[in-house]
Specification:
- By secondary structure, the chain is an alpha/beta fold.
- The chain has one domain (about 20-230): Rossmann fold (3-Layer(aba) Sandwich).
- About 25% of the residues lie in helices and about 30% in strands.
- A 6-stranded mixed β-sheet has the order 4-3-5-8-14-15. The chain has a 4-stranded antiparallel β-sheet with strand order 10-11-9-12, covered by helices on one side. A 3-stranded antiparallel β-sheet has the order 6-7-13, covered by helices on one side.
- The structure holds ribulose-5-phosphate.
- Ribulose-5-phosphate binds near residues 115, 117 and 118.
Length: about 240
Amino acid sequence: MPVPRAPRLACAVAGGQTVGVSTEREKGLAAAAAAELVESGMAVGLGTGSTVARLLPVLARRRLALRCVATSPATERAALALGLPVEPFGELARLDIAIDGADQIAPDGWLVKGGGGAHTREKIVAAAAARFVVIADSTKPVPALGPPVPLELLRFGLPATLRRLAPVSLREAPPSPDGGVIADYAGAFDDPAALAARLAATPGVIGHGLFEPALVSDVIIGRPGGAEHRTLRASH
Ligand code: 5RP
């Protein structure tokens, strides 16, 4: 289940005045723009979180013929309730598009994901998609990524894994649907690629929340004036 977070307010300066802008509205703008990228007949990966929660009803209203896979039980339940067809990710080897939120978005396309603890499944779905579209409100772009970096850990040997990864903290969250323990790496870092390689190479780490730019096709940020769409790479 995604960790519930309070709605935040982003501040934008317009005409010399600081105005509070609801991040919820920005999430909706980004989600609506992403929903327009989906076409009938597509296999679609559905991410997890409050921004994706805005996507699902918009997508459902379009009444397209889709095959969907969900990155979490929460998304699966919400999608099914809206009439979107969700199937287990056991039949499809490739997705046309996946749409998901992010916790941090760096200028070069590196992401931190996993605020909802779904990052392992989210990365599998993103990597399977010809086009991976990130949707977010305007608080998510950052000049440089920083901690925490979500982790999913194998329960076997957990104390030894935690010792190797320190500084790391266990999250007060239920295990992932695959039985993994959710934790957060708290160390400072300035090279996401080096940290990603270190985390991936640590025995006991099932998955981490650093997503490399090569995974990301598009970033759509909701802004006070509308959705800002950046293309990082063509679909493949
Ligand atoms: C869940 C995620 C989410 O996509 C990320 O935490 C962003 O969530 P939100 O859209 O609620 O801000 O990675 O594991």
